[in-house]
Design a protein that fits this description.
Elements (H helix, E strand, L loop, with lengths): L1 E9 L5 H10 L4 E5 L5 H6 L1 H16 L17 H25 L3 E4 L1 E5 L6 E5 L6 E10 L3 E3 L14 E2 L1 H5 L8 E5 L3 H12 L3 E6 L10 H13 L3 E4 L1 E8 L4 E7 L2 E7 L1 E4 L3 E3 L6 H4 L3 E2 L2 E2 L12 E3 L10 H15 L13 E3 L4 E6 L2 H6 L4 E7 L4 H6 L4 E8 L5 E8 L2 H13 L4 H6 L9 H10 L7
The structure holds flavin-adenine dinucleotide.
Length: 469
C-alpha cells in the first residue's frame, strides 16, 4: 500500500521537526519518519542534555567562590547519578514536547527506518519497523534530515567501545562514576564542553588538539584567552598533537601522541573521542538513486535541493556547520522555497557557541579571515573586567571583540568570551542580518546595567570612542 503526502521528512532532529512544523503551517499534508526518539541528536544526545550537565558543573564550581559574595555553605559534594538522571530526564521531557508539537500541527509521525526507492518522479519512502509490514509512502517532496554521528579516527587502534573509549553518548550517560582522569581528543565545542563539565566535578582532564590552538574555528585572541582561562581551572592541553595510538591499559586507556616530533604516552581512566562528525548517508538508497554525496554529506544547492528531483537535504547530513540552529534554519528556508515564498533578501550568518566556563560565542569573520579576504578593518575590544554589571556579578573574565569593514562600516564579525556571552551573541547576529553598520550599533540604546553594554563599548572602541576605558 502507498500513502500520499505533500511532504515527507526523514529524521526528527531540529532540522526535521522544524521543517515538518513549517510544512504543516504552510498547508502541506506532512509526515515525519523517525527510527529513534523524537528530537534527534540535539534534544536526546546533544545540545540540551549537555547544557543540563554543564549547569550542574557550573553551579558546583561556583560553590568554591561563595565567600566572595558573602555567603557560606557547609560541605560540598555532588551526586553523579542524580546529575546524569536530571540530564536524561530533561531530554525525555523535551522529546515528549516534540510529540505534542507534531500532534498539534497534525503531522503524522511514522516510527521506523526510512529508505528511498525509485518513484515515478520523486523517490518513494519505504519504512520498516520491527513487528510491522514495510510501509511505502509517496510525496511531492521528500526531505532528508537524517543527521550525523560521531566520527571515528581511522587507523589508531581502539574504536569507541562505550567502556574505556567514549563518544558523546557514553560521556552523557556513563554507566560508571565520573572518571578520576580523562583524556579528551578534540578541542571543538563538544570536546571542550565535556572537558569543562568533568573538570568542574574534579576529574583530571587533558585535552588533545591536532591544530595549533584550542577551539580552532574561533578568533585567535578568543582561543588564546580560552586556553588560559581553562588552564586556570586545571584543564591541561596538548596542541599541535596527533594521536597515533589508542589502546587499553591497566589503568583504563593509553593514548600515544606526537607533538612537534616528540612522542609521549598518556594514561587515563577514560578517553572521549570528539573529533567531529560524519553524515548519516548510508542505507538510505542514495547510491541507487544517484544522489550526489561528497565526503559523507549530501550535496545541496542554496534551497536545500539535491540533484534528484523532489529530494532535499537539511541539517547535519547536508554538511557543516553542524549546529542545531543551522539545521532548523535550513528546514524553514527549504519549506518556504517549496511553497514558492519569495526570499526577503535578508540572510542570517550562523553563530557558534561553546557553553563551557567561560562561555565562547562568535559570528561572522574572525580578524584573520577578514584580513585574508583583503578587507581593511577596524577592530574593537572591550574587557569585562572594566564593566559595571560584570564587576557586580563577580564575572571579570573575558572580553568582546568586534570587527568592522573600515570602508563600509558594516559589522562583519563579533567574538566573545566570558559569562553569558552565548545569550548576548544574538544581538550581533540580528545586527549583521540587518546589515548594520557602526552607526546603527552606536545609535542603539543598551539597557543598564547589563553585560550587553560591553557589546556597545566594543563597537565604540573600534572607532576610538569607547566611554569606559
Ligand atoms: C554532544 C553534542 C552537543 C551538541 N551541542 C550543540 C549545541 O549546543 N548547539 C548546537 O547548535 N548544536 C549542538 N550539537 C549539534 C546538534 O546536535 C546537531 O547539529 C543537530 O542535532 C543536527 O540536527 P539534524 O536535524 O540535522 O539531525 P539530528 O539531530 O542528528 O537528527 C537526525 C534524526 O534522523 C533520524 N534518522 C536517521 N536516519 C534515519 C532513517 N533512515 N530513518 C528514520 N530516521 C532516521 C535519527 O534517528 C535522528 O533522530 C551538539 C551535538 C553533540 C553530539
Amino acid at each position: 500500500m502507498t500513502t500520499d503526502f505533500d511532504v515527507i521528512v526523514i529524521g526528527s532532529g531540529p532540522g526535521g521537526y522544524v521543517a515538518a512544523i513549517r510544512s504543516s503551517q504552510l498547508g502541506f499534508k506532512t509526515a515525519i519518519v523517525e527510527r529513534d526518539n523524537l528530537g534527534g541528536i540535539c534534544l536526546n544526545w546533544g545540545c540540551i542534555p549537555t547544557k543540563a550537565l554543564l549547569k550542574s558543573g557550573e553551579l558546583f564550581e561556583k560553590l568554591d567562590h561563595l565567600e566572595d559574595y558573602g555567603l557560606a555553605v557547609q560541605g560540598r559534594s555532588y551526586d553523579f547519578t542524580k546529575i546524569i538522571e536530571r540530564s536524561r530526564g530533561i531530554a525525555k521531557q523535551l522529546s515528549g514536547g516534540i510529540a505534542f508539537l507534531m500532534k498539534k500541527n497534525k503531522i503524522e509521525v511514522i516510527k521506523g527506518v526510512a529508505k528511498l526507492e525509485k518513484g515515478t518522479s520523486v523517490p518513494k519512502v519505504v519504512v520498516t519497523a520491527e513487528g510491522a509490514a514495510p510501509r511505502t509512502l509517496q510525496a511531492k517532496h521528500v526531505i532528508l534530515a537524517t543527521g550525523a554521528r560521531a566520527r571515528v579516527i581511522p587507523g589508531i587502534g581502539l574504536v569507541p567501545d562505550g567502556d574505556k573509549v567514549w563518544t558523546y553518548r557514553e560521556a552523557l550517560a556513563p554507566k560508571r562514576p565520573a572518571p578520576k582522569s580523562l583524556i579528551v581528543i578534540g578541542s571543538g565545542a563538544i570536546g571542550i564542553e565535556f572537558a569543562s563539565f568533568y573538570r568542574a566535578l574534579g576529574s583530571e582532564v587533558m585535552v588533545i588538539e591536532a591544530m595549533d590552538r584550542i577551539l580552532p574555528v574561533e578568533d585567535e585572541e578568543v582561543s588564546n584567552a580560552a586556553h588560559k582561562a581553562f588552564e586556570k581551572r586545571g584543564l591541561t592541553f596538548r596542541v599541535g598533537a596527533k594521536v597515533t595510538k589508542l589502546s587499553k591499559s591497566a589503568k583504563g586507556v593509553s593514548v600515544a601522541l606526537e607533538t612537534a616530533g616528540k612522542a609521549e604516552t598518556l594514561e587515563a581512566d577514560v578517553a572521549i573521542v570528539a573529533v567531529g562528525i560524519e553524515g548519516n548517508v548510508e542505507n538510505l538508497g542514495l547510491e541507487a538513486l544517484g544522489v550526489k554525496v561528497d565526503r559523507g554529506h549530501v550535496v545541496t544547492d542554496s534551497h536545500a535541493k539535491t540533484n534528484v528531483s523532489g529530494l532535499y537535504a537539511i541539517g547535519d547530513v547536508a554538511g557543516p556547520p553542524w549546529l542545531a540552529h543551522k539545521a532548523s534554519h535550513e528546514g524553514i528556508h527549504c519549506l518556504e522555497a517549496i511553497a514558492g515564498k519569495k526570499d526577503n533578501g535578508l540572510h542570517s550568518p550562523v553563530p557558534g557557541c561553546t557553553y563551557a566556563t567561560p562561555q565562547v560565542a562568535s559570528v561572522g569573520l574572525t580578524e584573520a579571515q577578514a584580513k585574508a579576504k583583503g578587507l581593511e578593518i577596524k577592530v574593537g575590544r572591550y574587557p569585562f573586567k572594566n564593566h559595571g554589571k560584570n564587576i557586580a556579578s563577580g564575572e571579570l573574565e573575558g572580553f568582546i571583540k568586534t570587527v568592522f569593514d573600515a570602508k563600509t562600516g558594516a559589522l562583519i564579525g563579533a567574538h566573545m568570551i566570558g559569562a553569558e556571552v552565548t545569550e548576548m551573541i544574538n544581538g550581533f547576529v540580528i545586527a549583521m542580518t540587518m546589515e548594520a553598520t557602526e552607526e546603527e550599533v552606536f545609535a542603539t540604546c543598551f539597557p543598564h546595567p547589563t553585560m550587553s553594554e560591553a557589546m556597545h563599548e566594543s563597537a565604540l572602541e573600534a572607532y576610538g570612542r569607547a566611554l569606559h576605558i
